[in-house]
Amino acid sequence: MKKTQRSDNLKSDDSPITPFTRLLKSISSPCALYLCVSLFMGPLFFGCNAQDSEDKTDTFIHLREHMVTQHIKNRGIQDPRILKAMMAVERHKFVPEQIQSSAYGDFPLPIGEGQTISQPYIVALMTEVIKPHSSMKVLEIGTGSGYQAAVLAELCKSVYTIEIVESLGERSKKLLSDLGYDNVHVKIGDGFRGWEENAPFDAIVVTCAPSRVPQPLIDQLTDGGRMIIPVGEAGAQELVLMTKKDGELHEHAIIPVRFVPMVGSGGEMY
Ligand code: SAH
Fold first, then answer.
1. Among candidates 57, 145, 38, which has minimal Cα distance to 98?
2. What phi and psi values does residue 13 have, to the nearest 5 degrees?
3. Active site includes 118?
4. For residue 220, what are the domain limits?
5. Ordered alpha helix ranges (H), 110-261
6. Using a 6 Å cutoff on CB, does residue 175 contact ligand 1?
7. pLDDT value at residue 49
8. In CATH, what number is assigned to the domain containing residue 146?
9. Which pTM does this prediction carry?
């Protein structure tokens, strides 16, 4: 009897669902395989004893240099300021500790609550197309881990970022503040509506995908401003650059992408 009850609690692949397996299951399988290898090789790679913390920092610097050269520069992102920002932000600090050794691969990683941190190349690309500048006020929708916000904060005057999942928003708020990003303002709420009190924004970066571009975001974009946004249903999303000029909107599709959906407070998809 006991045995039957236990097997009822297992999923069809017969593996018990622990927080760790849930983490792995939340991302696609090639990525999960890479993660498994990193997780089990990570301790060997980084060494196991305490005197290694300096080596660990050096290793992360090398991994970050490799990420910037191989996955960003070699794929066409040339703006030295963006490459510098991607080099400056310590991506491993934005992912759960047990997967830090995978933080510099060019793929998304799970950050909890079924959400992901975007792949570095896409972060760099979205940053490049808004033409960041030190005088700009930027709105981000979908704070997630806070990584994209940190990259924007390296390049712009201020960043306003909205996250709908409270635990993620609170965690990122603390992390960004601990890392000294005092030009980032995090709000828990529904980003579909934008952030009216601080509008207009010189640029808007949307990191979750609605099926249509939210009108409040269009309204909150300054004239001459740029918005980068993944639009479309799961499996058919396109990264779209929108520019507002003399009150008119111009749209330019960039590449097909795969982002988590933009959802409302009741979990409904926009
Ligand atoms: N920019 C993030 C990646 C975000 S993943 C990073 O650098 O890590 C997309 C995020 O959008 C998720 O955290 C998800 O919870 C959030 N999200 C989904 N719908 C939202 C909405 N309506 N308003 C604000 N955030 C939303």
1. 38
2. -85, 10
3. yes
4. 2-257
5. 120-129, 147-155, 166-178, 215-219
6. no
7. 60
8. 3.40.50.150
9. 0.84
